[in-house]
Amino acid sequence: MKDHAGFLPSYAPHEMTESPSPSPASQHARSSSLSMDDPTVQKSLFDMFNKRGYNLISPSKSMVNGNNDSFSSTASSSMSSVIGFREPLHGQTPIHIAIRRGDVHVVEALLKSGDADVLQMRDDHGNTPLHFAVGTSSRRMSVSIATRMVAFLLDAGASVHAVNHKGLSPIMVHLLTVRKDDPSILTMLLKHGSNANACVDRVPLLHLAVAAKLPMFTATLIRHGAHLHATNDLGQFLREVAPMNMLVTMLAHLTSAPSFLPLDAHSQCMDCRRHIKPAKRQNLPILFRWFFFRSTSTQATHCFHCGWIYCSSCTTIQPVRDGLPSSCRRSEAEEEEDRLSRPLSKRLPLSRRPPADMKKDVSIRVCRICANLLKERLVKAASAGARASLYRFQQQQLPSASTTSASASLHHTPR
């Protein structure tokens, strides 16, 4: 078979021919005379697929009666009739069935056949081969096999933006069908351009991962830019619906600072559920604020790290700014809001001097979750720094110790 010697390779050689192995000369003559356009070759492939249990039918019903002319009449390219075989129930093509069955070698062979149309084939529901591959993890199939098939399809140029008849892209299908908290396939889809903020029936993917109790999926989506402040179809924020362990996982993987949630977006503290009001008294005289607004338990504040809304009782001023990610930068307005939310004794005065000459302000207002998270991060960084310093000190002592031992051996005189 010219130019298709690798198609459906040695895993089923007995299905291709029943004769003994021919000589190299006869093999060359046969490969020169046969090609994928040959109806006999197409008929052989059709029979081989069905022997493997694919239950295919020809694009033309006359093929069922053994009429080889149907192959040549329906072929528009060297592989069109082969990839056009369908099973009658859902209209799945050979590559759909191979993916569903986990036949990695068949998938690889079809992709290497040279026909670009194989990636665009759809079943009766509009599903592409990539839709099938990302949904195989919900079946009795190892994650490694599913990951290999997805990698083959993406490397061959499969589109991550194709949608089926229900308007679902491959990443949506993956989040709806996945059962194991292994983000390997999700990471590949995101690296090839899938939208981390896509919604299924007005529910963001991040909320779907939380509902399915997949903490590593939430962390992967956060790292690739999923919005932390996205709400579900009921208008609920992640802080209200996610369990504590998943909240910690998401916040630990923040690489950039999400903007402060508008104060009018939520009327309750996201921790204690106390009714809060936006604080609009920064421009009032200090004595007036102290006399009339001494009780600040219902004052709305923001966590500097996550940007969610809390009452002032559920946030504290902590010297944990150095625990923030290096790319976490707040706007001047948000920095000013955080500074004005602190008591007068904990504020640093504004200065017009260059930042290099200004005393570094390490205190920020954070919620309880972020405070513990940033403190733990600082402790780990300090521990790692101490170990590095100890290692450098030990390396510096090694040459002096070896020199001392060498000089001692030179001055040693035997009795």
What does this molecule look like?
- This protein is mainly alpha-helical and 415 residues long.
- It folds into 2 domains: 182 residues, Serine Threonine Protein Phosphatase 5, Tetratricopeptide repeat; 122 residues, Herpes Virus-1, CATH 3.30.40.10.
- 42% of the residues lie in helices and 4% in strands.
- The protein contains 17 helices and 6 strands.
- The protein has a two-stranded antiparallel sheet.
- The longest helix has 44 residues.
- The N terminus is likely disordered.
- Keywords: ANK repeat, Repeat.
What percentage of residues falls in helices of 4 or more residues?
40-55%
Order of helices and strands: HHHHHHHHHHEEHHHHHEEEHEH
Number of strands: 6
Distance between the termini: 89 Å
Give me the Rg, rounded.
33 Å
Major sheet attributes: 2 strands, antiparallel
Query: How many domains, in number, for the residues?
Result: 2
Which fold does the CATH topology of the largest domain refer to?
Answer: Serine Threonine Protein Phosphatase 5, Tetratricopeptide repeat
Structural class: mainly alpha
> CATH superfamily of the largest domain, please?
Ankyrin repeat-containing domain
CATH architecture of the largest domain: Alpha Horseshoe
The CATH class assignment of the largest domain is Mainly Alpha
Q: Count of DSSP helices?
A: 17
- Fraction in beta strands: under 5%
* Strand line-up across the major sheet: 1-2
